[in-house]
Amino acid sequence: MPNICLVENADDGISRLAADLREIGIGFEVCSEADNFSELCDAAEIDAVIIDVGTVSRQCALRVLEKARHLKKPSVLSLPKDFAEDYDYSLNPDELILSPSTSMELGLRVKQAIYRVSGPSGENVLKINELAIDLERYEVTLSGRKIALTYKEFQLLALLASNPGRVYTRDALLSQLWGYDYLGGTRTVDVHIRRLRSKIEDSDKIYLETIWNVGYRFIVS
User: Fold this and answer.
1) Is 32 in the same domain as 130?
2) Distances (CA, A) of 59 to 34, 56, 64, 91, 166
3) 103, 118, 133 — which closes off a domain?
4) Could you tell me if 194 and 108 lie in one domain?
5) String of DSSP letters for 104-142
6) What is the CA radius of gyration of the chain?
7) What residues pair up with 204 in beta bridges, in sequence order?
8) What DSSP designation does 149 have?
9) Is the same domain home to 129 and 108?
10) Same domain, residue pair 45 and 111
11) Residue where a domain stops, chosen among 87, 118, 149
12) Residues 77 and 106 in one domain
């Protein structure tokens, strides 16, 4: 179960959100508007943050959301139904829930936010920044979004990512993934690398580095 930072100012001590989290067995730490959210995240293993915008100011919500994005912590806004018409879309959390809600829906929203930001987890999952490679299910997600790869593209990515920094020649990749008797030539490797890059990279994040006249390696930055 995840551990949550619950940002709220509850006058009666026990809020509806806190009660719902306890009901579904999700651990949490309460952070009031006056508390330092970043210090709490550093001191505890926080997996996500829930902000009750019915009890904290817009400025507080903005500060916490900005810090959560910087720390790559998934965020959920709990918005009272009476506030819906005046909702500020610039807050832009990972998940939004109208309150009061059921404890089951709250749990699903929290887990969806965590998956959207962090992707899958487990012993057979390679996680590199926002990229997650599930070696058991043959699935790849980027910032929680599934990436459609062919079987060979997945094999190529999994091999390189499992050995970050190691340089593979085109011949080595061809023989390991396509077999010695493959007649397509090393150009096939270049084509698959190019397709992979188009699916998992952008101008801000590079995973596959070309070693000129040699081959490729997976880099972690």
Assistant:
1) no
2) 12, 8, 9, 10, 46
3) 118
4) no
5) HHHHHHHHHHHHHHH---STTEEEETTEEEETTTTEEEE
6) 22
7) none
8) -
9) no
10) yes
11) 118
12) yes
Find the angle CA(73)-CA(79)-CA(85) to the nearest 5 degrees.
130
pLDDT tens-digit readout, 81-118: 988 888 888 888 999 999 888 999 999 999 888 887 77
Distance CA 31, CA 28 (A): 10
Residue written as token pair 């997650």? 132
- Closest residue by Cα to residue 144 from 105, 95, 102, 88: 95
Highest mean pLDDT pick, 7-16, 115-124, 139-148? 139-148
Q: Are 178 and 80 found together in one domain?
A: no
Q: How far is Cα 145 from Cα 207, in angstroms, rounded to an integer?
A: 17
- Site of tokens 């929203």: 109
Tokens of 101: 């809600």
| C-alpha 151: how far from chain center | 23
Give the distance from CA 15 to its chain's centroid. 28
Q: What is the CATH number of the domain that holds 24?
A: 3.40.50.2300
The C-alpha torsion from 170 through 172 and 174 to 175, rounded to 10°, is 160
Number of alpha carbons in the 13 Å side-chain half-sphere of residue 146: 7
Domain residues for the domain of 155 are 125-218
Residue 35 has pLDDT above 70, yes or no: no
Q: Strand pairing of 139-142 and 131-134? A: antiparallel
Which tokens sit at 35?
């508390």
Domains held by the chain: number:
2
Q: Are residues 82 and 114 in the same domain?
A: yes
